[in-house]
Amino acid sequence: MRNSKEIKKQLTEWLLSGMLLLCTVSLAEAVRIKDIADVAGVRGNSLVGYGLVVGLAGTGDKAGTLFTVQSLASMLTRMGVTIDPNKVKVKNVAAVMVTAKLPPFAKPGSRLDVTLSSLGDASTLQGGTLLLTPLKGPDQVVYVVAQGEVSVGGFIGGDQDKTQKNHPTVGRVPTGGVVEREVPVVFDDKGSISFMLRDPDFTTAIRLADVINAQMRTISPESETVGFPPPAHASDSASINVAVPEVYKGRIVEFLSRLESLDVQIDFPARIVVNERTGTIVMGANVRILDVAIAHGNLTIQVKSTPQVSQPAAFSGGITVETKKETTTVTEEPAKVLLFQSGPTIGTLVAALKAIGVTPRDLISILQAIKVAGALEAQLEII
Questions:
Q1: Mind listing the pLDDT tens digit for each residue in 82-94?
Q2: More confident residue, 160 or 157
Q3: What is the pLDDT of residues 289-325, one digit of tens each?
């Protein structure tokens, strides 16, 4: 009796686990609008500047790096110290390019992280301090000024036998940038907004518009009036335009907060992504295989070279010559044939190929051959 109860308990646990898995898969397909789309016009802006890092322990740019010496001399001249650039020889200074991303709606006084990248031949930026550096946008206007201690996630040490970890010539200054000017964005007086899908897809765009229209009917019932276009419509596979209802005119932030948390059932094409450099293969769940027969066998060619010495006879006047004897061995494994009928998923294919010992490299070649044969219903992307 105990065994029967244990079996029933085990079956119940399996059933609950299966139901939980199905619920998880179902929920995973529905995502929030904010996770798949951006609001048109709401984006960050790239900034760049040129600066100097000082305080390095002899790991800065060498004397032959002219732009570092000229920049140091110009900076000292502005501070009232006149020097001859040709006589400046310091190893504690490095020229760097400073970059940052100005987030949308950033206000003056807010702080952000900046990234430093060495321009010259400095060996590391560890222990340095970035001097005051203005960061400009494409319009050549200064939006951020940066300064602070450099944090490098690596090191380099040793004189003869050097040890290096990570990349010591790139660093960051956490919260080292101070916003001096905001990017003007007119937002509240808009009569319509647009959502831009990060991965354009016609089906997902239509579903997103339908979800928004359903929500709009709860906000303003007059949106159901016959003869009037719906508030939200997809203009293409990436853009969904939404008319702002009267009750939210001048309150765009509240309106977007109500829409961006809505769940949308996304759709995506069947795709297989292959990275031949690392042997990585990522396959989507919608991949299908048509009728196809696969024969796979390995061909191995090994060339072995054995050094030999040719010794001349005594008093012959010849010389000793070293030669090489090469032996070539060809090994071909018997081909293993698999037959697939229409309908199997990519999981069935992978399981069968894994059972016969196919490596990721072999699988890449097999997938490419199936695609050429026209039996692979998926996009095959090689990166």
A1: 888 777 778 899 9
A2: 157
A3: 777 777 766 544 455 657 776 777 766 667 777 766 6
Bridge pairing between strands 379-382 and 271-275: parallel
Closest CA to 36 of 266, 209, 285: 266
195, 239 contact by CB (below 8 A): yes
Cα Rg, the chain, nearest whole Å: 33
In the chain, the amino acid numbered 69 is V
C-alpha span between 136 and 102 (Å, rounded):
10
User: What stretches of 73-231 adopt beta strand conformation (E)?
Assistant: 94-102, 111-118, 129-136, 142-149, 155-157, 163-165, 170-179, 192-197
Residue 26 has which token pair? 């179902």
Residues ≥6 apart with Cβ < 8 Å to 215? 258, 259, 262
Specify which residues 303 forms β-bridges with. 328
Collapsing DSSP states into helix, strand and coil, what is residue 108? coil
Number of other residues whose CB lies within 10 A of the CB of residue 229? 8
Residue pointed to by tokens 């040129």: 50
Adjacent-strand bridge partners of 324 = 307
**Distance between CA atoms of residues 85 and 112, nearest Å:** 34
The Cβ of residue 244 has, within 10 Å, a number of other Cβ atoms equal to 19
CB atoms within 10 A of CB 29: 13
pLDDT above 70 as % of the chain:
73
Rounded-to-integer distance, Cα 292 and Cα 346, Å: 13
pLDDT per residue over 325-357, tens digit each?
666 554 555 655 555 555 556 666 667 666 666
